[in-house]
Write a structure and sequence with these properties.
With 256 residues, the chain is an alpha/beta fold. It contains 10 helices and 9 strands. The model has no long low-confidence stretch (mean pLDDT 93). Bound molecules: nicotinamide-adenine-dinucleotide and zinc ion.
Length: 256
């Protein structure tokens, strides 16, 4: 692993434009369950039943059984050293963090350019009159198992993309542009099976970027797209990369 860490920190130093793509695995060490895999939410909740736009329309109160758990979880979560490492890397050319996560942890850590492909749980909106609210205004209701309602009386919903819905087009376009314009893409904690996120590293590679992947297990990207795979936990690996990077920078400043 330490050989790989050294190699990635070299790549970060040598490449001008770094873009990071994160998935649910990035937040696991902040205590947020991923969707798939061990302890995944889908082992408990049937996605089609709780988080599909049609099932939401039929029975929003049932969907809120899942939303409530997710909102409580993100309100209790804090970013970890891996999120902090990505903030630090902005000094070394990290331009955008593209995330599939809806937990706001990159922003909470201080990342300045975050593209939220799947929206966020931190805002709610009314499907009838389109009024928007901060989720914080309703946190008591959520914790007390009540469904937040709009002034017009309709049950609100999170500003997160549900199954069967389109992704925010502007964010998709900006993410694609970032992927095509980068020299190095780090893909962290995503199973790379959800589109269009999974196609971003493919696009980055096609336009000449080096792709580094950090995950506990291999993904559909690993054999065909990834140049360097680091098997490990997001927090530990990113923290080690940042430490190596700053150690190298520090040593080169001393020797020059
Ligand atoms: P996923 O749940 O499909 O896959 C998680 C991936 O992370 C797996 O490949 C797993 O091996 C890896 N992983 C698990 N723990 C890890 C760790 N500590 N370090 C590194 N890797 C680890 O996640 P995905 O690919 O992001 O799937 C996309 C969907 O999941 C999106 O729709 C996203 O909105 C949603 N989601 C988001 C959150 C969140 O906001 N935190 C949580 C659950 C699901
Ligand atoms: Zn309304």
């Amino acid at each position: 692993m330490s050989k790989h860490i050294k190699e990635v920190s070299r790549l970060i130093r040598e490449n001008e434009r770094l873009v990071v793509l994160t998935g649910a695995g990035m937040s696991v060490e902040s205590g947020i369950a991923p969707f798939r895999g061990e302890n995944g939410l889908w082992q408990e909740f049937d996605a089609q039943k709780y988080a599909h736009i049609e099932s939401y329309r039929q029975d929003p109160e049932r969907s809120w059984e899942l939303f409530r758990l997710q909102i409580e979880e993100i309100y209790d979560a804090e970013p970890h050293q891996g999120h902090e490492a990505l903030v630090k890397m902005e000094e070394e050319g990290l331009t955008e963090v593209i995330t599939q996560n809806i937990d706001g942890l990159h922003q909470k850590a201080g990342s300045s350019q975050v593209l939220e492909l799947h929206g966020t749980l931190f805002t709610l909106f009314c499907p009838d009159c389109e009024r928007e609210y901060n989720t914080s205004e309703f946190i008591e209701e959520v914790r007390e198992n009540r469904c937040p309602r709009c002034e017009c009386g309709t049950i609100l919903r999170p500003d997160a993309v549900l199954f069967g819905e389109q992704l925010p087009q502007d964010t998709v376009n900006r993410s694609l542009k970032a992927a095509e314009g980068c020299d190095l893409m780090m893909v962290v904690g995503t199973s790379a099976v959800v589109q269009p996120a999974a196609s971003l590293p493919v696009q980055a590679k096609r336009t000449g970027a080096t792709v580094v992947e950090i995950n506990l297990e291999s993904t559909p990207l690993t054999s065909d797209v990834t140049d360097l795979f680091i098997k490990g936990k997001a927090r530990e690996v990113l923290k080690n990369i940042a430490e190596k990077l700053y150690h190298q920078l520090f040593s080169s400043q001393i020797s020059s």
